[in-house]
Design goal:
- The protein has twelve helices and five strands.
- The chain has a five-stranded antiparallel sheet with strand order 4-3-2-1-5, with no helix packed on it.
- The protein is globular and about 70 Å long.
- This is HERC2-like protein 3.
- It comes from Castor canadensis.
């Protein structure tokens, strides 16, 4: 990079930072940055150079000590990560990958929290995670139609069945795994149990005096957008799970190559897996992969 081009890039960056109202570490595109804002040209150059590698995966890889986890789970970081997890339209494969990585980062840093210091933050976050999970399950807002418009125009188009988990169920299973992990920790266990008990108690109260035979959940809660419905569905999902199909980011077992992580699923069903022991990626047919069981809730 010559001197003129470097100075031009720095000037553009400084001008952007002066006009942008987005706080530090909140701009997440293909990368997530960990450098704090600074006016130093040298710092801006380093930030520009490191854009290509400072990603959510990298941040998770350095969250190894309580001090690092505490720094990466400040209120502003949690707000940022929850925005990424919740996502926004249009929902794509790339956005799903970012959402999964954000959940994994939360799973890495939240166990470091001390209840005596962050009790209020922990309570709010538990409620927010359950609320998001309930909303996701009741609306399936991030799922796209299985048939594209061009396909629907064909006379002999047939409905397609998804052999792998959808966008919504993939993300929901990741949030369930996060809540189950937190539930296994002493400092989080009581808060999650309290929320679960409150939701189950509200269901019991709603069902009092109503017939119990051949009655569907919709008969008790006709309005699917009712917060009680979302809360109940989130609790039941954490207790019993949602979707056992193979999913992006999920663990699978291969008879020959062992255990691995699904890194890509193409529309034509080609599944890329990064195997743990081989440290390489291979494309495998669906019938050769078996999803590995997730952590169960010990309630």
């Amino acid at each position: 990079m010559n001197g003129n081009h470097k100075q031009t890039s720095i000037n553009k960056e400084i001008k952007y930072r002066q006009t942008s109202r987005i706080p530090e570490a909140t701009r997440l595109g293909a990368s997530t940055f960990v450098f704090p804002p600074a006016a130093s040209p040298d710092r801006l150059v380093r930030r520009e150079q490191h854009r290509s590698w400072c990603t959510l995966g990298f941040v998770r890889s350095i969250a190894l000590t309580p001090q690092a986890c505490g720094a990466l789970s400040s209120p502003r970081w949690i707000t940022l990560l929850m925005k990424v997890v919740e996502g926004h339209a249009p929902f794509t494969a790339a956005s799903l990958q970012r959402q999964i990585l954000a959940v994994h980062l939360l799973q890495a840093v939240l166990p470091s929290w001390d209840k005596t210091e962050r009790a209020r933050d922990m309570k709010c976050l538990v409620e927010k995670l359950f609320g998001f999970l309930g909303s996701l399950l009741t609306t399936c807002s991030s799922d796209v139609p299985l048939l594209r418009e061009s396909t629907l125009r064909r006379r002999r188009a047939r409905p397609q069945a998804s052999l792998t988990a959808t966008h919504s169920s993939t993300l929901a299973e990741e949030v369930v795994a996060l809540l189950r992990t937190l539930h296994s920790l002493t400092q989080w266990n009581g808060l999650i149990n309290k929320y679960i008990n409150s939701q189950l108690h509200s269901v019991t109260h709603s069902c009092v005096g109503k017939p119990s035979e051949r009655v569907l959940l919709e008969d008790y809660f006709p309005d699917s957008e009712n917060p009680e419905v979302g809360g109940l569905m989130a609790v039941l999902a954490v207790i019993g799970g949602i979707d056992g199909r193979l999913r992006l980011g999920g663990q699978v077992m291969h008879d020959e190559f062992g255990e691995g992580t699904v890194t890509r699923i193409t529309p034509k069903g080609r599944i890329t897996v990064q195997f743990t022991e081989m440290r390489t990626c291979r494309v495998c047919p669906l019938n050769q992969l078996k999803p590995v069981g997730e952590r169960l809730l010990s309630y």
